[in-house]
Write the structure tokens for this entry.
Amino acid sequence: MDRDSQEPQDELTSTAAGWFQSIGVDVSTVSQVLSSQDERVTQSIRDGIMRANEQAISRAQKLQKWRILPRDFSIVNGELGT
């Protein structure tokens, strides 16, 4: 997120970049993540979702669909309100 404009950026945070490196994927931007369509990313996210869903106490609490978006939601771009 740009600190001045509050607009989402393509650059990954150091935490996110570190996670990608931990699964063996060398990317530094969201664009690279989306264009690579690396199965390691998809599988790692699926595994995490499955672990979280196992702890859900009802079906309503389970994550059933997900997608990596090209940019974060923001007030500036109209996806979030103030």
